[in-house]
UniProtKB/TrEMBL annotation:
Signal peptide: none
Descriptive protein name: Aminotransferase
GO BP field: polysaccharide biosynthetic process
CDD domains, alphabetized: AHBA_syn (cd00616)
One MF annotation (Gene Ontology) recorded for this entry: pyridoxal phosphate binding
InterPro entries (alphabetical): DegT/StrS_aminotransferase, PyrdxlP-dep_Trfase, PyrdxlP-dep_Trfase_major, PyrdxlP-dep_Trfase_small
Gene3D superfamilies xref list: Aspartate Aminotransferase, domain 1, Type I PLP-dependent aspartate aminotransferase-like (Major domain)
Length: 366
């Protein structure tokens, strides 16, 4: 709904014209299909045989405002790369939001660290410096600041807190590509930032995709190496100088490369990002104006210095203001019946997943 290119027109549910004719998402324009097809026709479909992946990385770093970017196969791999780039000791702690996708937590565990959940702000749904600080200990290695639904965390204050304790900051920007804080892109504030280009994200590189962005040269090289089975940049350059086989894998990694046809799609969509995010903001303003007039709804809006990316639009129900015959589930059902996309429980308390039932850091109450 937020991606509707021609804007939103609000109609009463009892109107004869109720409902919306909305475009599907993701939607691939002719230039994106042509770019992907061209990569396939040329047969240069791998990062090492084509140039689309490298160009996408270059253009993505420019877009975010960082020195480096690493294109990867999905957002989970991006987080895996960034966590391993920190080289923390086993048993280290990583502070993270409980309001996030499962990978934000599972990748911390897979990297050998323990997730510690900070509470979220009622308005933004993000972790804050005030909820993070009491959790910092001598075992804390990093903070994963998840920008929920397109609304970025208070990165200036989180950065200041982290710096005072010598803690790394990873921005989980999977849901907030194009968001800004004080005119500066979300994803350019932390030591590293990760992104997702899954099928429902603000840009989608053919169903899956991701990236890491950073200004740190060492972190960039470690992320680049980890996503390519531990290859060493210097060893590869030396190997390219002659025909004799050389060993080039200096560390342990995995194969998390983005394909060339996906990178080609990403380059096309990246050029449209600002326009798309602006359209999402225009559509969101229509929803804010309409829904804010309903007493039973609480509709948070960001401060003036924050540009929301509006991956999702949240409205919260004031149960005490609802008519007795209505409930959250009925509201969702009625809207869906009118072809208006609506759901509940997006990014709920991830610690309630069965996979994390044994975590000692689970909050005692919700």
């Amino acid at each position: 709904m937020l991606n509707a290119p021609d804007g939103l027109k609000i109609l009463s549910l009892d109107s004869d014209e109720a409902g919306l004719d909305l475009p599907s998402w993701p939607s691939y324009d002719h230039d994106e299909v042509a770019a992907a097809t061209d990569a396939l026709k040329r047969g240069c479909v791998n990062y090492w045989t084509g140039d689309q992946g490298r160009e996408f990385e270059r253009e993505f770093s420019i877009c975010i405002g960082t020195r480096h970017a690493v294109a990867v196969s999905n957002g989970s791999v991006a987080l895996a790369c960034s966590l391993r780039a920190l080289n923390f000791e086993p048993g280290a702690e990583v502070i993270v939001s409980p309001r996030t996708f499962v990978a934000s937590v599972s990748e911390i565990l897979l990297a050998g660290a323990l997730p510690v959940f900070a509470d979220v702000d009622r308005r933004s749904q993000n972790i804050t410096p005030e909820t993070i600080e009491p959790l910092i200990s001598d075992r804390t290695a990093a903070i994963v600041a998840v920008h929920v639904a397109g609304w970025p965390c208070d990165m200036p204050k989180i950065n200041a807190l982290a710096e005072s304790h010598g803690i790394a900051v990873i921005e989980d920007n999977a849901q907030s590509l194009g968001a800004e804080i004080a005119g500066r892109k979300a994803g350019s504030w932390g030591d590293m930032a990760i992104f997702s280009f899954c099928q429902d994200k603000i840009i989608s590189t053919g169903g899956e995709g991701g990236a890491v962005a950073t200004d740190n040269e060492e972190y960039w090289q470690r992320c680049w190496s980890f996503k390519d089975n531990g290859k060493c940049m210097d060893a590869i350059e030396a190997a390219a100088a002659g025909p004799v086989f050389k060993w080039v894998h200096n560390s342990i990694g995995t194969n998390g490369r983005l394909t060339e046809f996906q990178a080609a799609i990403g380059r096309c969509q990246l050029a449209k990002l600002d326009e798309w995010v602006e359209q999402r903001n225009r559509n969101a303003r229509v929803l804010v104006d309409c829904l804010s007039a309903i007493d039973a709804l609480r509709v948070p809006v960001p401060p003036d210095d924050v540009r929301h990316a509006y991956y999702k639009f949240y409205a919260f129900i004031r149960l005490d203001a609802l008519r007795k015959s209505w409930s959250r589930d009925r509201i969702v059902k009625e809207l869906v019946a009118q072809n208006i996309p609506c759901g509940s429980g997006v990014c709920p308390e991830v610690y309630l997943e069965k996979a994390f039932s044994s975590l000692l850091s689970r909050p005692s109450d919700r």
